[in-house]
Amino acid sequence: HHTGGGGLAALAHLNSVRDMFALNAADSAGAAAVVDDGAEVEEEEREVASDTFRSTALISSREQYAAMYRRSVEDPDVFWAEIASTFYWKTKWETRDGNKIHSENIDVRKARVAIEWFKGGRTNICYNALDRHVEAGKGGKIAFLWEGNDPGVDDKLTYKELLERVCQLANYLRDQGVKKGDAVAIYMPMLLELPIAMLACARIGAVHSVVFAGFSAEALSQRILDCKPNFVLTTSGVRRGSKVIKLKEIVDDALERVLKEGFAVGTCLTYANDSAVKREDTAWQEGRDVWWQDVVPKYPKESAVEWVDAEDTLFLLYTSGSTGKPKGVLHTTGGYMVYTATTFKYAFDYHDDDIYWCTADCGWITGHSYLTYGPLLNGATVVVFEGVPNYPDAGRCWEIVDKYKVTIFYTAPTAIRSLMRSGDEPVKRHSRKSLRVLGSVGEPINPSAWRWYYDVVGDARCPISDTWWQTETGGFMITPLPGAWPLKPGSATLPFFGVQPAIVDENGHEISGVCSGYLCIKAAWPGMMRTLQGDHARYETTYFAPFKGFYFSGDGCRRDEDGYYWLTGRVDDVINVSGHRIGTAEVESALVSHPQCAEAAVVGFDHEIKGQGIYAFVTLLEGVDYSEQLRASLINAVRTHIGAFAAPDKIHWAPGLPKTRSGKIMRRILRKIAANQLDELGDISTLADPGVVDQLIDLRDK
Ligand code: WTA
Fold first, then answer.
1. Domain AMP-dependent synthetase/ligase spans what residues (predicted)?
2. Least CB-packed of 208, 242, 338, 535 within 10 Å?
3. How far apart are alpha carbons 543 and 473 in whole angstroms?
4. Alpha carbon distance 253, 402 (integer Å)
5. How far apart are CA 223 and CA 214, in angstroms?
6. Which of 315, 488, 555, 566 to mutate to test the pocket of ligand 1 (most atoms within 8 A of CB)?
7. 3-state SS assignment for residue 231
8. ipTM of the complex in this document
9. Which residue among the candidates 107, 572, 573, 694 is catalytic per the annotation?
10. Which strand (E) or helix (H) includes residue 66?
11. What's the pLDDT tens digit per position in 524-554?
12. How far apart are CA 702 and CA 699, in angstroms?
């Protein structure tokens, strides 16, 4: 309870948080989620791993975890140095202040936010992920099992073969003048050449910037303009399900756009994926475009390693935030390497003979940390799937599980919900007896989907690791360690080693015990991003200024009486559609670019399969009439600016938008209209024109 000056200071702080994130209870979906959640959750439901499972688990009790966790937060330097020592370092890191191996300031009030781990240490993540295993005599182990879009089309690479492929590409890139620190853009489908490209960049110290191959030419061009690569790596095309997508055409369009902005990409290295789009059907620009298969195989299969500093940049990955422009999240080498490898090992209880399948695309962080780096650093065998879970039918995933005897299966709730709709039969048709551990990522998993995943897919035998983390965190933050403690459907359970979550109230104060609030993290961990590409100020204002002294995740969260964490969704203007982060501001700016659109406001709404759908309120220019054609062309504007995955599910015609007298859009009201909760609109008397609400309600189904 605040009084006097303290109260005013708290209020001023609250206002700044409100401005930045629209966090006030009166106008935030998140705040509502923080309060609403939990009501439908059956608190007492628990699942305990079997004795058989626990007998081989790396961490088999909460006590064992607690002892390790205590060490990890009381003496993070010693804890992480011990783990880091199991990797290869060309030169050991510097220690400072006696034996401090990391420096951190995450408090914007003190100084510039600056985080470093293992600084001065020289290593290479590609060397640790590949050469190290080959040198240890494991070169014959399968690294990747590739399953094509169509059943029966597959491929595999041993660690030795993978290393050779990576070396050839590394040699080519180096020969073409790509140097340490140079950015390389990658716009490719899930062929093995995608992780090969990432690893080749890492080998020569180049910074990879993978752009998900579902983004549009315009979105790709923005990302290219932000990181200025001289090289773009792509593919002629890809087949996904029954569709053919001509990726090279999209890249051509993007490169033309960047040229108009005065930037020229030197080389577009294109992998000919003949099964989708043949060479002769691919547009070509002599001098700029090069066929991958014409040049790369000519290079030697061995290539020198570029030893880089632990704090040298490994990659950029763009992600959506509250404002329009995507953020180039920057990860460095040493801490990310140690963190992704360690989280992978413990959260999936990884053993040497596991066969691991992660359904993520390398265009997102999960494909970086848990399809490529984390598993390969552990020497794991990884299944890579080019296709989609329901092609040719809803049993495809389980067919693949049986084909490769997958033991660890990691996917997103949206996939689980969509498969759940096809019933149990396509699952039960396949044995799945190899499965040991299941994983979930991308959004809160609703308890009913969790149940189905656990009971039907896992035959009530496989623990589910519901891993909460973000592009920014590099790796898992809150996650079960399978076998270590009972699971509760819908809870990500407890923090990983070294992670200190704090639930914070609107005044920026940490609250304890059973509570709900904004999820923050108290101290640095090795895998966290170091900055946003070219904009350290934005890094500080977005993540460290809202709650001073903390890293702010943007998520709401509740902690229960067992200390378990329950994530409740974003509290900022980010929507999570099928596990893909989309900024409402990005969709709005795409809509507003349409010549007949005057204004747009976008909110999320509950969607049975996607988790959240995109709901757009659109005000047209004076005199323009509503039509289905216009609706389609507005949706198309979003496809063009961002990509098909961001296409609005609903366009709601809005003669006016509900605004305060100062002109701020009251999204709370729009969210209620989108959710059809018309009796919960709340106080609308502060609107400049309360009449717009009735107009909107009238136009609901128009
Ligand atoms: C959400 C994906 C609840 C969350 C790895 C976060 C989750 C955002 C979970 C990050 C989970 C991810 N439970 N929510 N297990 N995993 N989220 O950057 O809102 O694409 O802030 O990283 O996804 O999305 P991103």
1. 136-530
2. 242
3. 11
4. 41
5. 14
6. 555
7. strand
8. 1.00
9. 572
10. helix 62-74
11. 999 999 999 999 999 999 999 999 999 999 9
12. 5
Residue matched to tokens 């408090």: 107
Give pLDDT tens digits for 229-278: 999 999 999 998 889 999 999 999 999 999 999 999 999 999 999 999 99
Q: What is the dihedral of CA 223, 225, 226, 231, to 10 degrees?
A: 80
Spatial distance between the Cα atoms of 331 and 336, rounded to a whole number of angstroms: 7
What span, in angstroms and rounded, lies between the C-alpha atoms of 216 and 642?
5
The residue-averaged pLDDT of 151-157 equals 97
Beta bridge partners of 313: 332
Residue 145 and residue 381 in contact, taking contact as beta carbons nearer than 8 Å: yes
Averaged pLDDT score across all residues of the chain: 93
Token pair recorded at residue 98? 């006696």
- Contact (CB, 8 A) for 277 and 249: no
Q: Tell me which of 410, 567, 573, 575 to substitute to probe ligand 1's pocket, judged by most ligand atoms within 8 Å of the beta carbon.
A: 567
Residue 611, H or E segment: strand 611-620
End-to-end C-alpha distance for the chain, whole angstroms: 48
Residue with tokens 């995450």: 106
DSSP state for residue 472 in the 8-state scheme: G
Question: Pocket around ligand 1: residues whose beta carbon is below 6 Å from it?
Answer: 319, 364-366, 440-444, 466-471, 492, 553-555, 567, 569-570, 576, 581
Q: What is the spatial distance between Cα 446 and Cα 693, in angstroms, rounded to a whole number?
A: 32
Q: Provide the 8-state DSSP code for 463.
A: -
CA distance 440 to 411: 5
CA atoms of 315 and 74, how far apart (whole Å): 30
Please name the residue whose Cα sits nearest to atom 11 of ligand 1: 468
Tell me if residue 51 is catalytic: no
Q: Distance between CA 329 and CA 281 in Å, rounded?
A: 36
Query: Which among 550, 329, 358 is positioned nearest to 467, based on CA atoms?
Result: 358
- CA-nearest of 295, 338, 263 to 83 is 338
- Written as one letter, the residue type at 685 is S
Q: What percent of the chain has pLDDT over 90?
A: 89
